[in-house]
Model the fold of this input.
Amino acid sequence: ETEAIAELDTAHAVVGRLAALASGTDTSAAAKMTFQRYVLATILDEVLVLANVRLRDMSHHRYQLKREVHATDRRSTEGLELAVIDRWTGNIRPVNTLSGGETFLASLALALGLADTAQAYAGGLRMDMMLIDEGFGTLDGEALDEAIRVLLELRTGGRLVGIISHVDELRRRIDTRLEIKKTEHGSRAHWVLG
Done:
């Protein structure tokens, strides 16, 4: 009977340690991260590899995103916070220090990286369409050129890219579009084919 209790204690200790590691409450572990957060962080790393290829290109090799291993403030989720490496200054800084246009480009790069990662996880299932809702109004002329160039590359690669925007400059640059006009009798939609 004492031997059976000792075996149960040993098994309980192993299961308890695994449970503590998975829940991030193991005091002897270096990182206090739940298993779920660990899996998300691993996927985020994969997304960042793909996103950074595009962001480096869109930012003329200035910016690269990186995952912070430790949260910078108590409200943040440890292991899932992002920072930006600024190659022009050599500094690593929080992503919230990017300008509106730079934030849009980083968000676009992340969305494209996520789409590529999801497609890889889906066993080759293609994601042929992407909708982008606004954000273009925050871009200066050069950043807008860069964003449109990337989106046109996606189109030539076989993806359909839909942009929802009120920016007049986009209307001049996008030759095929569905325009929505408000009237006193309701909204009207018509295709403009260029």
User: Anything to note?
Assistant: The mean pLDDT is 83.
